Here is the input.
Amino acid sequence: MTLPVRRDLVGKSPYGAPQLPDAVQLNVNENPFPPSAGLVADLQRAVGEAAATLNRYPDREAVALRTDLAEYLSKQTGVPLAVERVWAANGSNEVLQQVLQAFGGPGRTALGFEPSYSMHPVLAAGTSTAWTGVPRRADFTVDVELALQAVEQHRPDVVFLTTPNNPTGTSTPLEVVDALCAATSGVVVVDEAYAEFSDRPSAVTLLDQHPRLLVSRTMSKAFAMAGARLGYLAASAEVVDVLRLVRLPYHLSALTQAAARTALAHTDELLATVEEVKRQRDRIVSRAAELGLMTVPTDANFLLFGLFDHPGATWKALLDRGVLVRDLSIGPGLAGWLRVNAGTEDETSAFLSALAEVV
Amino acid sequence: MTLPVRRDLVGKSPYGAPQLPDAVQLNVNENPFPPSAGLVADLQRAVGEAAATLNRYPDREAVALRTDLAEYLSKQTGVPLAVERVWAANGSNEVLQQVLQAFGGPGRTALGFEPSYSMHPVLAAGTSTAWTGVPRRADFTVDVELALQAVEQHRPDVVFLTTPNNPTGTSTPLEVVDALCAATSGVVVVDEAYAEFSDRPSAVTLLDQHPRLLVSRTMSKAFAMAGARLGYLAASAEVVDVLRLVRLPYHLSALTQAAARTALAHTDELLATVEEVKRQRDRIVSRAAELGLMTVPTDANFLLFGLFDHPGATWKALLDRGVLVRDLSIGPGLAGWLRVNAGTEDETSAFLSALAEVV
Here is the structure.
């Protein structure tokens, strides 16, 4: 049987890294620290409260959650943000999909600096938005001149800039964000999924100057809530109003809203994991150097290491030793590199032992 | 400031009924019965278990949940269904959006029989799929000849058929589904959100004959889980494979998966509400007749009542008496009608008292 599938999907494979629960999982940039017993108890309490009216649709506007997110983001960035300027969805992927539904679409173009988060072009394809990939420099920084030239040439409707960049860990200075905002007539989306692992100032600090700037965040990484699926965005109130036109009604469940609010009430405890994660990341950097490997300077909870002639073979050799890392070497501009994220001390040690055997 | 919004969104308003928690809410076809204390306790237990690894991404394939859904659907329809033939997402809206992303899109057309679920054309617009609305008969049944003619004329890529139909409550015989499947080269989506309130056989019984038939369901209505946002779909395994190409990775949170599985473990208890809801619905039908009103024959948990010269004024008069119903009279083919769903006995009595005052 041949299904009448949209032509551009024919022959494609679903996005996604292997899920192998028995391995030491250092392949999807998760935070290795599970919720504390206190947080789990609070989550259960919050879910119990939400469950009492689970027969009803959730608050379609998720006002209480967005208020808490605005408060957190204001505190974390030093920029006062009202609830009207914050939006939330099921993971930052859904936030970005909504952005593309609103500002991209057929006949429109999104542009990003590659290698970067591989979901950006996938989301563009899913919303029938054309994609233009502009190469980063060999050191994975953004070449500002080339960037401005590409914006002038392609006149993109949406510009993606990921900082720290996944999968390279590279930060982009705010001056570049500023220059791109000034150069484009489209919207600029700064994907700050890993911002809490970086000491650099957030693009949120530029929001008041640039009404077409959007900053996306997630609770999956520093907040250690990947399983709860909560992404969010700060922008102008006008942008948030536009996203309302494309969001599915009641897109955020009552349980998601309750769980995310509970996690936000435990912000200090959850973000305390960040320093330990950075320590383990830095252990990997040091040990990789001792083993004669290169690493890419990183502001995130992961890093690229290499270079390998046969990264797939190294990936497999590490997996044979029970450690799952990410082989992105088939992606554009990533030949020879593997990506690993920092785990707990034990997980990181397991990786480093396996790596020493393999190299 | 003018944002560079997609042109077809300019001037639109967000979809959504008023949320007025203080009123008797009979406007969004919710099940009025909240979860039992036993179910809430089980939900808390399940969430506690899921929370222990909430720092990890959820099972991207939601295999355990889809297995439970397949088991329920097999039992409810009498058709053995393997997990490979069942898909799930955050509400049936997300399921249908994925279907349109996969089988609709730019240059493609979806067709439905109106008045029907108003999200179908909204989801089509959100995926840049053209929309063709074919009018139902004056009694809201589907005119088969007109339907087949429209399919031949417009050659839609996606045909929507809602049974029981929202907002009219009208069922469509399986012969019509059968005829549409035979007539179209596109996919046929039978939206069975309200199927459990109906005694008619499900379109799931036709799946083995029609590889391009898709049947969508939800846990928001009979299962009384609107707050948990869980929709699902039964189709061929090939269709499910195609949906994987457009779904956002990890679209279903660990909490959603755990909550839905817990609700499914309480199927008998939850579906026991169906008979009581139908009793209350039938009370409305009888009393409306006594009050000299017309109602549309319904197989769902709601019904249309009227006809009103000024339905907006009647809607307001009911709300002034603390009862919130749905004014859909501005939609195509619904002039003069209001929609109300069955509530608890008390809620239904409140509505009927208010109605008697207003008429």
Chain B is about 40% helix and 15% strand. The two ends of chain B are 47 Å apart (CA to CA).
